[in-house]
Description:
By secondary structure, this protein is mainly α. It is 68% helix and 2% strand.
Amino acid sequence: xxxxxxxxxxxxxxxxxxxxxxxxxxxxxxxxxxxxxxxxxxxxxxxxxxxxxxxxxxxxxxxxxxxxxxxxxxxxxxxxxxxxxxxxxxxxxxxxxxxxxxxxxxxxxxxxxxxxxxxxxxxxxxxxxxxxxxxxxxxxxxxxxxxxxxxxxxxxxxxxxxxxxxxxxxxxxxxxxxxxxxxxxxxxxxxxxxxxxxxxxxxxxxxxxxxxxxxxxxxxxxxxxxxxxxxxxxxxxxxxxxxxxxx
Length: 247
């Protein structure tokens, strides 16, 4: 029999993979799972303590850098607030207090509703799934007397930037990898070290793990010092990481 977190993740994935026309039903299924699974309910209840959804929603609405007249949605940085925020947002859709189509039009402009809904699930539902998974693991560990000794370092803070920002950062990492690969003056050992760290940073961005991304960027910055093409590429990458509130 599936445990609570497995059921929750399945419901999140069902919503992420759902056609837009079935989104309301999938949202209902997800919220029902949270309500009937006692440990998920207690976890959600705890994240909602002293959480002000109206204030956090106003903070999350930010002008797009490329088009200030349009708004984008930036989720809270902390996992607790992120989980509470998305839960409240889904409840608004469920209760009819907020229309999903109107919400997509406002925050996820795209050529079609299908693309907008896909962007929404990538930017909102998947980070929600990850945050709850991590909070659930911590909640389970609280009953373990040795839990404090195994307190995680990575997987604690999740990057909540919009997908396009992360795509740009990933693209910059790929440029660094390509530049290092094409450089003929580097020794084989130096090239391998640079490629290992650059590729690791690229994959770390896909995990949205803020501490892991930051740690690997610091490693890249020092390791690539001897590479003549590094300063410009690293400066652009660092600027993007700061704009995404990762550094």
